[in-house]
Predict the 3D structure of the following.
Amino acid sequence: MFVRFVIPARDDDSGRRQGLFQKAYALRRSNELSAHLQEQLDGALTWLDEHLKAPDRFTRGKRKNEPGLAIGWFKASAHDHIAHMRTVCRVLNECDIATEMLTTDRPGYIVFEDAYQVAAAPFSDTIT
């Protein structure tokens, strides 16, 4: 099983719901959080930065400049990563930003994989 955390906003390129990272980093930079929430968000994002490799591939094709439409999913076994993402969710929710956790057994065509995550170009029926 694979796990993805999203917000309601749609990504302009993929048309799929955005993951949490964009919104979380923007919130972190905004300096609008209370000290307590800023500390929680900083801690979770710093841990994820240190323990999660950025995928080196987001497309199925081999052509340069092909749009990267792959979507990141955590493997269900990535317990620590998922726990830190739940912290990010809590902070976003405290700021009235809705979050949702999605699960699937079929994330799409996998174009990147490591021990904790996959990046997959979604099938047409993949819920994201």
